Amino acid sequence: MRKRLWFWLYFIVAILLAIYFATRIIMTGLGTSKTSIIRNIYITADIPNKDLSAIASAVALPPGVDSYSINLNELNEKVNEVPGVKASAVRRKPDGNLAIKVKLYRAVALWTDGQQYFPLSVEGTIVNKPVTQRSEADIVFIGAVPKDISQITKVAHNMIGDIDYLEWIENRRWNIHTKNGITVLLPEKDPYSAIGNLIIMDKNYNILSKDLEIIDMRDDSRILVK
Length: 226
Fold this sequence. Notes:
Blueprint (H helix, E strand, L loop, with lengths): L1 H31 L8 E5 L7 H6 L13 H9 L4 E8 L5 E7 L2 E6 L4 E5 L18 E3 L7 H7 L6 E7 L3 E6 L4 E3 L5 H15 L8 E3 L7 E2 L1
Parallel strand pairs: 1-3, 4-6, 6-7, 9-10
Antiparallel strand pairs: 2-3, 4-5, 7-8, 8-9, 10-11
Helix pairs in contact: 4-5
């Protein structure tokens, strides 16, 4: 009984060692054979129909490169440095080719330097190449922006026909610059309700169409105009 137990124990150990060395031999063979040569790099994104050419350029490799000679972490860092990439993962496929999956920032507005317009994510990150023109449906920011512009962008869309651009003042509150040349000074606290009140006033009194320079809404108890 005891000899039989030792026999099976040695048998199992031998099987495990055989599997281990067979795997090492196969992996070594793959690393030195033609099957390890990178022929294709597959790039997929979580947003369909996006231009991924910048990512392809960042990870471009000369022909005939051995897949197992590539440092995947370094390659992944190059992908993450591409504007618009939020997160990425690079893996080596069994056939030696590479697969790259990326999560992209989603543009919700534009930021302008006065000449060009850069697509902007809700995190205030520039996510794509600039364009020279804006559409009537775009909310535009100028200057510094906070880390979260999601709410102000959403509310500003309610008066999209009147807004020229928004400006973040002293890192604490917003100014609205209208297409009619009026500067609206929003309060530091709850600028969203102030925008709602501005929309109501414009509906009742056409205030945004009047010959005004400033509408000061920083004081909740009164509104000043100039």
